């Protein structure tokens, strides 16, 4: 079955790098995602990576995927107070009939200290 | 822009009531999902649907059912609401690389 795990909390100082980690169990994942949820707001897609890639960079965001260990990480460079939010890791996996489902982790709350 | 709309932002219902949560998307997506979000538990998948009249149980389907009569609309039904179903309910639809979320319905069962 699918299981996505993340640590609950991370605290960093403004200007430092943040690294949020995630592990998953389903080796048939096709895409892996990072979503951001600010207080009182909905979920917004930050970035995603295809399962056949091992790295993706998008401005301050770097996603690393270790498929062998089923480990995904999100690195935020030069973390700002506006990055304070809950970050959800998610995996997309195939189900019968060729369709897809998306399973989320519990979310990591990132606190940025000024 | 893709739009996923949930019919209510806030709902208060009594224990034992039948509750309908509606979700509509405007981009002809096949895949739609219902999650509930609870502190410390993240998003948990209740049900999903990959076509009209097709549905699959997610991780926590007990106490819920769904209806997908039209492609654009995916309804979550609480047959007999209980206090442990007090939660934030999120609907999503999936297109290619991204799942788009509605604004959420905060349901309180008293």
Structure description:
The complex is a heterodimer of chains A (114) and B (110). Chain A has no helices and eleven strands. Chain A has 114 residues and is mainly β. Chain B is mainly β and 110 residues long. Helices cover 0% and strands 61% of the residues of chain B. Chain B contains no helices and eleven strands. In chain B, a hairpin with a 2-residue loop joins strand 5 and strand 6.
Distance between the termini of chain B: 37 Å
Measured between the Cα atoms of the first and last residue of chain A, the distance is 41 Å
How much strand of chain A? over 45%
Global structural class of chain A? mainly beta
Structural class of chain B: mainly beta
Shape of chain A: globular
* Average of pLDDT of chain A: 91
Largest sheet of chain A: 6 strands, mixed
Q: What is the element string of chain B, with H for helices and E for strands?
A: EEEEEEEEEEE
How many DSSP helices of chain A? Answer: 0
What percent of residues of chain B are in strands?
Answer: over 45%
Number of helices of chain B: 0
The Rg value of chain A, from CA coordinates, equals 14 Å
Q: What fraction, in percent, of the residue positions of chain B are helical?
A: under 10%
Give a short account of the largest sheet of chain B.
7 strands, mixed
- Overall, the morphology of chain B is globular
């Amino acid at each position: 079955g699918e299981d996505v795990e993340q640590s609950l909390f991370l605290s960093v100082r403004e200007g430092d790098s943040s690294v949020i980690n995630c592990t998953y169990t389903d080796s048939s994942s096709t895409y892996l995602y990072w979503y951001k949820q600010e207080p009182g707001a909905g979920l917004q897609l930050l970035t995603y990576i295809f399962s056949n890639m091992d790295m993706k960079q998008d401005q301050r965001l770097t996603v690393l995927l270790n498929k062998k260990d089923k480990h995904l990480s999100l690195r935020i460079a030069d973390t700002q107070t506006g990055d304070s939010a809950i970050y959800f890791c998610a995996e997309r996996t195939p189900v019968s009939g060729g369709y897809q489902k998306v399973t989320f982790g519990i979310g990591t709350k990132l606190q940025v200290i000024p | 822009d893709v739009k996923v709309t949930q019919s209510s932002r806030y709902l208060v219902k009594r224990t034992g009531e039948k509750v309908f949560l509606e979700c509509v998307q405007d981009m002809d997506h096949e895949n739609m999902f219902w999650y509930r979000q609870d502190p410390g538990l993240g998003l948990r998948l209740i049900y999903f649907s990959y076509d009209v009249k097709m549905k699959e149980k997610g991780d926590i389907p007990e106490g819920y059912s769904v209806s997908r009569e039209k492609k654009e609309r995916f309804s979550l039904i609480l047959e007999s609401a209980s206090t442990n179903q007090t939660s934030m309910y999120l609907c999503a639809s999936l297109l290619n690389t991204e799942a788009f979320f509605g604004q959420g319905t905060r349901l309180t069962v008293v």
